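Summary: Need help interpreting a holo structure output

Steps to reproduce:
1. Submit the protein chain below together with the SMILES for NAI.
2. Request a joint structure prediction with the ligand placed.
3. Inspect the structure token block that comes back.

Expected: a single structure record containing both the chain and the bound molecule.
Actual: see attached output.

Input attached:
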Amino acid sequence: MTGAVRAAVLGAGSWGTTFAKVLADAGCAVTLHARRPELAAAITADRENADYLPGVRLPESLRATTDAAEALDGASVVVLAVPSQSLRENLTAWTPLLPPDASLLSLMKGIELGTTKRMSEVICEVTGAGADRVAVLSGPNLAREIAEEQPAATVIACPDHQRAAAIQAACLTAYFRPYTNTDMVGCELGGAVKNVIALACGVAEGMGFGDNTRASLITRGLAETARLGSALGAELTTFAGLAGLGDLVATCSSPLSRNRTFGEKLGRGMSLEEVQRSTRQTAEGVKSCRPVLELGLAHGVEMPITEAVVRVCHEGVTAAQMVKEIMSREAKAE
Ligand SMILES: NC(=O)C1=CN([C@@H]2O[C@H](COP(=O)(O)OP(=O)(O)OC[C@H]3O[C@@H](n4cnc5c(N)ncnc54)[C@H](O)[C@@H]3O)[C@@H](O)[C@H]2O)C=CC1
Ligand SMILES: O=C(CO)COP(=O)(O)O
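--- attached output ---
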């Protein structure tokens, strides 16, 4: 492995583990950091993360550890793959261990509760890294499909194009095709807001509605995402790309999506607490919907679907009421 890019992936859930496999398949020397010793030991010994990706064979070259210092030692790419709401706390502990010039790549698709910050903003704030050291990867990338090596594309955004290109080269495989972009705001918002729209699509699914309803939610969801993006300085073309429409369509349509599945259970009448108890995996939209709505309010952007999701998730509104509220809005031009 001499000369290979050294990468540390922090977070051994479904996407962190899958992306560690992608990097290893692309020829990087990868160490995956897990919180639980039994999971790290099982990944190393059995070549499988049975908790998050049962049946997926992980590359021999992939190492796992619970020791963050060991994972980060000599890494030139540091990949952050924990739930958005725990990033600040996790990263505060990891910051003293970060190699000084390493690229910091966020895989996360959420907005921080309380601050309405994007993940790259949290990363810069906690680590003191300049914005040009921080990148985001976002696109239609349901972990299980990528882990099974089904072909897919993605976007790596960084204000420093050279750095985006270096990360692109480090994770390019026969089944995973990254494109570069310099629009951090657009890529991060696309990823965070699509989870909220996927919750709405799940609710519709759970209520027994079909393709027209989903297509309407996807299209109007994209419209509200782009409105917010425009207000925050994103490039509108980003929302027509992989990190916008691409991810939105995949997540809103796939039974593999945790957000869509979460919404589906709400749509069938389960309470938020019941759904939360039924899964150990992260459905980012449940927490991010509120800060997304706050961003909209702060910038004078109407986000009716996001607002409806906030009301169902956090204000006790039923799925049936949510439909009524969305459908009885004032008629307007597209
Ligand atoms: N799973 C997927 O298909 C994709 C996920 N993402 C994004 O990647 C990020 C990570 O998601 P997943 O790996 O899917 O999540 P997950 O729920 O499968 O795993 C989360 C991982 O973070 C660890 N963790 C560290 N600190 C934690 C804390 N305080 N609380 C809970 N868990 C903690 C967990 O132990 C676990 O290994 C999310 O922002 C998600 O939106 C993005 C693309 C695809
Ligand atoms: O971001 C994803 C696909 O690109 C995964 O979506 P979920 O978090 O809803 O599973």
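--- end attachment ---

Reviewer comment: The longest strand covers residues 152-157. The chain has a mean pLDDT of 97.
Status: needs-info
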